[in-house]
Amino acid sequence: MPDTVPITDNAARSRFEYDVDGRIVFANYRRDGDTVLIPHVEAPPSLRGTGAADRLMRAIMETARRDGLRIVPICSYAAAWMRRHREYADVVG
């Protein structure tokens, strides 16, 4: 498995961010205790198809595992990503 990328928890905007040369891939979230709901994941058009959103999701899941959080995917991309990556089933809420 590739190393995860550094992400930022932009609490003011309620989103996790991954900066790729000044272009931001992000996942909006809502927290409810130890549960993090992800209603939207977005990559700039220039990064779509490059794996940037995949790297963001992997880093979110690693962060959740480290911090004892549960992730609930609401957006279709996050839900499909989690179905394809069963190695993170332990953090899916």
UniProtKB/TrEMBL annotation:
A Pfam family assignment: Acetyltransf_CG
Superkingdom classification of source: Bacteria
PROSITE patterns given in the database record: GNAT_YJDJ (PS51729)
Sequence ranges assigned to domain N-acetyltransferase in this UniProt record: 8-93
Entry protein name: N-acetyltransferase
Annotated organism of origin: Azospirillum oleiclasticum
Lineage: Bacteria, Pseudomonadati, Pseudomonadota, Alphaproteobacteria, Rhodospirillales
